[in-house]
Specification:
The structure is a single chain. This protein is mainly β. Strands 3-2-5-4 form a 4-stranded mixed beta sheet. A 3-stranded mixed beta sheet has the order 1-6-7. A two-stranded antiparallel sheet has the order 8-9. About 20% of the residues are buried.
């Protein structure tokens, strides 16, 4: 039998103020508006699903897909009437991230402003944590 390193005690605490948790992903108003536009003619879908895939020159890249249902392991973000689901594999990489939609003369795209990223490739499509 091995000796225990430390002892732990559990104590019930009543009337303790619970602090709100930070959302895994926050959406800017332009991202909310764009998602609403994308989903307005597609009643069979309930929202967008964000995931990560191993791809690109720096390791990971985001994926965005329409989704018809919430999987058991998905994290749901509900903001301003828009539902975004985060795949299990992407949950830790997206903590504290802001999802924005940016439109310029040459492109329109969702941009993930992620404070956890340690490096990106030159084109900005792949990243590492």
């Amino acid at each position: 039998m091995s000796a225990s390193i430390a002892r732990a005690t559990v104590k019930a605490v009543s009337r303790r103020k619970i602090l709100p948790t930070r959302a895994a992903l926050t959406l800017t108003p332009s991202a909310v508006n764009k998602i609403k536009v994308l989903l307005q003619d597609k009643p069979q879908y309930i929202g967008l699903k964000v995931g990560v895939r191993t791809r690109g020159c720096n390791g990971l890249t985001y994926t965005l897909d329409y989704t018809k249902q919430k999987d058991n392991s998905d994290e749901e973000v509900l903001q301003d009437g828009v539902r975004v689901f985060i795949e299990k594999k992407a949950q830790l990489t997206l903590l504290g991230t802001e999802m924005d939609f940016v439109e310029t003369k040459l492109s329109s795209e969702f941009v993930f402003n992620n404070p956890n990223i340690k490096g990106t490739c030159g084109c900005g499509e792949s990243f590492n944590i």
